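hey m, so remember when u said the tokens were messed up on ur end? i reran from scratch. heres the input so u can diff it against urs
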Amino acid sequence: MAGFVVDVKEVMLVTPESPTPKHILKLSSLDSQLFLRFTIEYLFIYPPHPNQDRGTVVEQMKAGLARALVPYYPFSGRVRQRSDGLGLEVVCHAQGAVFIEAESNASVCEFERAPRRRNQWRKLLAIHVEDVLAGPALIVQLTWLADGAAALAVGISHCICDGIGSGEFLNSWAELATGQRGLDELQPEPVWDRHLLEPMQAPHNLIPHPEFERVQDQCRFSTRLTKEPLVPTAICFDRRHLVELKKLASASEDEWVDSVGIPSRVSDFPYTSFEVLSAHVWRCWVRAMELPERQTVRLLFSIDIRRRVEPGLPEGYYGNGFVLGCAQATVKELDENGLGWAAGLVRSAKERVGDEYVRSVVEMVSESRASPDLVGVLILSQWSRLGLERVDFGLGKPLHVGPICCDIYCLFLPVYKQRDAVKVMLAVPKSGISKYEYWLRNP
């Protein structure tokens, strides 16, 4: 938006409403992974309320945050490296979360489409934490827009929680701010219990983990993503579109069964919306990138392990409770085989993840500090199932939920008042943007 201006009015620390434990909490091996040392940055756009008393809303949000920081007190702490150098920990001395109030000349209509530039909305979170080992674990900015709408930006340390955990925290904060619940009524009640994901034995190589394997870069892949301009895109798939994708994928079910070696037929286990949409986006992105046909490409996506480990993680566990699923193929294979084949790779990656698989990941990242190889990789995260569309501070349900900056990581986002719809947001190299959007819209 031309002339985009944000004027910061107040910056303050919000500390827990009542005394909280002052100690050091150890983060799990999954929390401490190198590729998670960044801040998850959410953006919520709320509808205009011209007669809303802004002062009352701000005070309610601050008071609700102070209450939320009692059971969620690690968000008021600071993350640092452990003295043994093998992981991270949180120093909990009620240092506080940052709360910012601001005003902008933007209006709600500016957020109905993808931003024109990747960082166009950057100012809506004035403090960007470059180093999670030095900055606050939680930063909030409420920006009043020119037409009476509101933008709420939230930055949360990924070392402390994952998407599911952050969704639970944000909804609890909103309920406390609006008086829908009291501190003794939070559902779910937050649970730390990071010891449940500690390594139990020495690392072994019995289980393959393609997400950590290095592949040959035949096209200077990394250089292209950093040197070429990236163009943000946001395309919605409603229920009808998703049904069409499922039909296309199921048409090649025999091809999928033969390729991944699973005896059951797809007709007995229909493809999920996630399987077909992620496979479709992956194929379109790879085609648009025009990579060499022998280049290995991978789709990495998070798989919730809360019910995949034995025993399962307790309800309310808000730490990083996921591992990366990995679908892998060559460019030629992905191009020549149908959507069902690619969806089968996604399904197979999901089905590999069980207790033993998770434990082997924990062992690898704790001992060898294994980290995903990013050559030929598209990373996908499903924000459409985190409950973010329900976060209501008395301003109504958000019209838009998404990231502060559109990037090379693909996000599946919720769509306002369309429960079964998904918005696909991704920044694509300028040279491939037209092809990507055409193929995505015309499967």
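this time it looks ok to me. The domain at 210-385+392-441 is CATH 3.30.559.10 (Chloramphenicol Acetyltransferase). if urs says something different then somethings off w ur setup not the seq
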